[in-house]
Amino acid sequence: MKPTAARTAADYLKKILTARVYDVAIESPLDAAPVLSRRIGNHVLLKREDLQPVFSFKLRGAYNKMVHLSPEQRARGVICASAGNHAQGVALAARRLGCTAVVVMPVTTPKLKIDAVKALGGDVVLQGESYSDAYAHAMTLQAERGLTFVHPFDDPDVIAGQGTVAMEVLRQHQGPIDAVFVAIGGGGLVSGVAAYIKAVRPEIQVIGVQTTDSDAMAKSVEAGKRVQLDDVGLFSDGTAVKLVGQETFRVTRQLVDGFVRVDTDAVCAAIKDVFQDTRSILEPAGALGVAAIKQYAQQHGLKGRTFVAITCGANMNFDRLRFVAERAEFGEQREALFAVTIPEERGSFRRFCELIGPRPVTEFNYRISDASLAHVFVGIGIHKRDEAAKIARSFERHGFATLDLTDDEMAKEHLRHMVGGRTALAADERLFRFVFPERPGALMRFLATMHPTWNISLFHYRNQGADYGRILVGLQVPTADEPAFRDFVASLAYPCVEETLNPVYRLFLR
């Protein structure tokens, strides 16, 4: 093999064609995504590396590197640093080849990946906040114990193993392909994919994809030298790399056609897109390619093209799905958030709801806090992003001061969960939990039936995607109106539980 500086796509082509990966890897399918394809007007294909035995492409490069080690090296054992997927590949390869494996992982690694590595026999060491921190500790352990380091990306044998993904894509789809979208962490996958594609079908574009807060490779290529990030975002932990490899930077700079940066909301929407087409759940890194296809096609006004996204991993912690589901609506541009100020007077809440009209209300948070003004946090379903500004202008025209919070990170992440608190203005307040059918008009029916002298002092609702919505309501009901109130609740025929005596309510809201 030629020295690193002279290595070409043709050199890598030979290494990829002779790579040893199928002792442990499968030839993953190349599946169509018909729902997404129809929606964006382009033919989208998913290279399903999330279906590998360790739910990631990483076992290809890890095994190809380790199978080429000498018997003496394997006898001493191997060590690696990884955010999770490479770790599983090394652990599986070590078990197959009969050697020991020490795996250094950041403390931020999802528990799912840590447990998977342990189940494969890997000796897990947790160190640091990112891959780069784990890598530094792994270098120390390597020197102390005489182990062989298996790099997750910056190694020709690893790059060649990952390049077999592209070899399969071109064999599985011999028709036109306009671009292949590849997630980038350290750059091993994109280097292998670009090396093979540019040697065999150079007309196909290779587009690298990074998150906006972990874009070391894109910044490095733009600067003409490797750039180390001070911090990286951890949502897409599989691509959270502060400094890309020397060899992967060289190959990427030479062969990759361009880059797309995507944000967290777009990635969450892409996870949902893949689920709708496949009923599979990707990890954030695995969905980067899909998010980029949507963004790229929209920005360039493309229709009728054929795009491939490498869905490179599915090691997702189940608890993360709550966050993904919440933020997917923003990524799909289907939800807008507003802070609206309305007069604190009877009937104003109903007037405001009438102004919303038939639009679906996705969230409503309100707590009485001022004698003259009420501040409402509301989410409204939309079809495209520019509707948010139109809705805000409509509220303003009707006398409701409005802030559009759709792009406000603090509002999306924190504020929506913090609206409320104690108040001295909630005299005679009683607290109720209602279960509403999730259909248009249910809220207006509630408001229209309610006695006009009963004031709403607290309201909390969030659409959870179920057939029924759960709503918490505070009502100021005078004691003399108790019989009328019982009749009101009975007329609604909504399940209702009174929570006025709940100690949590009295601790935090009363």
UniProtKB/TrEMBL annotation:
Alphabetical list of InterPro entries matching this protein: ACT-like_dom_sf, Ser/Thr_Dehydratase, Ser/Thr_deHydtase_PyrdxlP-BS, TD_ACT-like, TD_ACT-like_sf, Thr_deHydtase_biosynth, TrpB-like_PALP, TrpB-like_PALP_sf
Q: Where is the ACT-like domain?
A: 336-407, 430-501
Q: Which UniProt keywords apply?
A: Amino-acid biosynthesis, Branched-chain amino acid biosynthesis, Isoleucine biosynthesis, Lyase, Pyridoxal phosphate, Repeat
Which SUPFAM superfamilies has this protein been placed in? Answer: ACT-like, Tryptophan synthase beta subunit-like PLP-dependent enzymes
Q: State a single Gene Ontology molecular function.
A: L-serine ammonia-lyase activity
**Per the database entry, which stretches of residues form a coiled coil?**
none
| Gene3D superfamilies listed in its UniProt record | 3.40.50.1100, Biosynthetic Threonine Deaminase, Domain 3 (3.40.1020.10)
Q: Which cofactor does it need?
A: pyridoxal 5'-phosphate
- Provide a GO biological process annotation: L-serine catabolic process
Reactions catalysed, semicolon-separated, are: L-threonine = 2-oxobutanoate + NH4(+)
Q: Which Pfam families match?
A: PALP, Thr_dehydrat_C
Kindly tell me the pathway this chain contributes to: Amino-acid biosynthesis; L-isoleucine biosynthesis; 2-oxobutanoate from L-threonine: step 1/1
Say which enzyme class the record assigns: lyase
Q: What is its EC number?
A: 4.3.1.19
Q: Which PROSITE patterns match?
A: ACT_LIKE (PS51672), DEHYDRATASE_SER_THR (PS00165)
Q: State its role.
A: Catalyzes the anaerobic formation of alpha-ketobutyrate and ammonia from threonine in a two-step reaction. The first step involved a dehydration of threonine and a production of enamine intermediates (aminocrotonate), which tautomerizes to its imine form (iminobutyrate). Both intermediates are unstable and short-lived. The second step is the nonenzymatic hydrolysis of the enamine/imine intermediates to form 2-ketobutyrate and free ammonia. In the low water environment of the cell, the second step is accelerated by RidA.
How it assembles, according to the record, is: Homotetramer.
Q: Can you tell me which family this protein belongs to?
A: Belongs to the serine/threonine dehydratase family.
Q: What is this protein called?
A: L-threonine dehydratase
Q: From which source organism is this entry?
A: Rubrivivax albus
The organism's taxonomic lineage, starting at the top: Bacteria, Pseudomonadati, Pseudomonadota, Betaproteobacteria, Burkholderiales
Q: What gene name is listed for this protein?
A: ilvA
